[in-house]
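Hi team, as promised in this morning's meeting, here are the two structures we talked about. I've kept the exact order from the run log so nobody has to guess. The first one is mostly here for context; it's the second one we should focus on when we meet again. Sequence first, then the predicted structure tokens.
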Amino acid sequence: MLREIVSNEIFTILLVIGLVFIAIAKLTDPKRFNDFVFVIGNSKYLKIYSKDQKFFDKFDALLFCNLIICGSVFIYIVLGYFNQTSTISVNLLFKIVIGLGCLILIKVLLERLVASLFEFDRVIDEYLFQKMSYKNYLGLLLLPINAITLYNLELSLPLVYFMIIILLIVNIIGIITSFKSHQSFLKHHFFYFILYLCALEISPYVILYKVFLT
């Protein structure tokens, strides 16, 4: 069993690793990275790069790795605040990393499977690209948020809620943008859209809520 530690050293290592992934993504494709940074409020990135998307994209994969790392650190910090514990369980942190990564990957694979069954692969591919772009953008935001929270700020309930609300707003903007891009398709397949929302967008978060808070 992995031991519990009190030092923030493990967080420092993880944040540095996340920063390395971001740096490699920027070095790999500087122009795309610069466009990506302004994806909020600017659809240029989504319009240009959704056309050239692949099943495995190195740029997106690097940012996704950062998202998993920074997202897991943030979840751990929030859980630690609500549980009022100052110790750091490497075992729990590792489980969060694996759980978050598996949740997102399985969800994407299920969405692709559903799209293949109902023969609207092209629309789902574009939708998933847009949605993952916004999620990866959350990873960028979480890196400085985690660093400031760990080393400069003393957490309080209003601050925790404020950070969560900011992240939710960015995620909601991404979902709305994706839905607006495909509103004509959604109008003709509204029933499937409702099923999709219930099965693949809402239920995973309900399950997570039950796991962590009950």
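And here is the second protein, the one for discussion:
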Amino acid sequence: MKRYEIDERELPRLIREEPEQGMTLAIRLYGNPVRTICRNILAGCGSAEAEDAVADCFVSIWQAAGRFNPGQGASFRSYCYGIARTTALARRRKLRTEPVLPLEETIFLEESEDVFSRQEEEGLVHEAVDMMKEPDRTIFLLRYFYFFKVKEIAERLELPPKKVENILSRRKKDLEEILLEGGIGCEEIG
């Protein structure tokens, strides 16, 4: 097998043209974060469910590589992490367990039937998150992209849990405003 050192922007093409090498590289680059996302979302469902979700995720990445459009603002890495979240959340719903995050702590974007609109929405979300200052950005990513619990984030960053909650609340409000200004509606948060 060839050894590839490739720019992330070229990975979707590699997956389409040379699936074995492309997927090997995708797993090497994104395997650990995808596994973390799936395990956190499926916490309490058993490690086999999380590993099945990881496998399903990489199948979905392989199938979706041809639909990825880098001109829509999101990186392929973010696209893959989005697939991981969607896959794990779908598996969790299928298992009919409790939601990962309480309703009042979840940001809901309106469902878009148009893939290009959805990529544009995701690009706007990623831009907004990238503009956050530290430690707010890290806290927001750990909570809503990696599904860490507030207590885990607080311990990891050596902050009081209340401060983490306050930062999350402020950043969610900021994100809602940015999305509304960008023409993306958000459902009311509990």
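Starting points for discussion:
Residues 97-115 have pLDDT under 50 and may be disordered.
The CA atoms of residues 114 and 120 lie 10 Å apart.
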